[in-house]
Specification:
This protein has about 210 residues and is mainly alpha-helical. It contains 9 helices and no strands. The chain is flat and about 50 Å long. The chain starts with a helix and ends with a helix.
């Protein structure tokens, strides 16, 4: 069983999921709702569409031949998933909510205001953040390599938590907290590492 490639795929997926927000830190001239939905277009629309074109044989022919009722039933679970996790949900729910915020806060002009400092950079970094988030679906490739979905999911989440917390230390996001907080975080990371080892050992001895 190709364990090493599977673990690497999970690491890349966890790294992408744990660090996708970093490019947003370089967006200087846009409101949150503007750069979030711009990144979301790359996360939930362009990224999946391009990957499907290059990896699914006859994708466009299949899509155009699919009935509207089938497409609707495919769309509905994605919509419900997006509503259930609105902050990291699907395109439709986020597009609706960000449009509401754009309208309420009068920030629709962000998308066309070329006088905003670093206008092109804001678009670039928003797109980069969204594309990075989409890369966390490397975990699917990890699952195909490791074969055990439940254990694979544990491995994926372990990498996400590990990487995101280390990123927090790197960017000094924990400044101002008590000494107990970093110790608690490190203890939690240690527990995660031990759990991965235990699960891996358990899988190795199962019959």
């Amino acid at each position: 069983m190709p364990i090493i490639p599977g673990v690497l795929f999970y690491f890349f997926g966890g790294f992408a999921s744990g660090n996708f927000y970093i490019p947003y830190k370089s967006v200087k001239g846009w409101a949150w709702e503007s750069f979030w939905i711009t990144g979301g277009i790359f996360s939930w629309l362009l990224g999946p569409f391009l990957v499907a074109i290059f990896t699914v044989p006859n994708f466009m022919q299949i899509s155009t031949a699919t009935t509207l009722i089938t497409l609707a039933w495919t769309f509905l679970p994605g919509l419900l998933w997006g509503i259930g996790g609105l902050t990291l949900g699907g395109l439709t729910s986020n597009l609706f909510w960000c449009s509401v915020l754009n309208l309420r806060l009068k920030t629709f002009g962000d998308y066309i205001n070329r006088e905003t400092p670093l206008f092109k950079n804001d678009i670039f970094f928003s797109a980069l953040a969204g594309s990075t988030w989409f890369l966390h679906f490397f975990l699917r490739h990890g699952a195909s390599k490791l074969g055990n979905r439940s254990s694979s999911w544990i491995l994926h989440m372990a990498f996400v938590i590990l990487v995101s917390n280390l990123r927090g230390f790197y960017f000094n996001e924990w400044q101002g907290v008590t000494r107990t907080t970093p110790r608690t975080i490190m203890a939690g990371i240690l527990v995660i590492i031990i759990s991965v080892i235990v699960v891996g050992y358990g899988n190795s001895i199962k019959t």
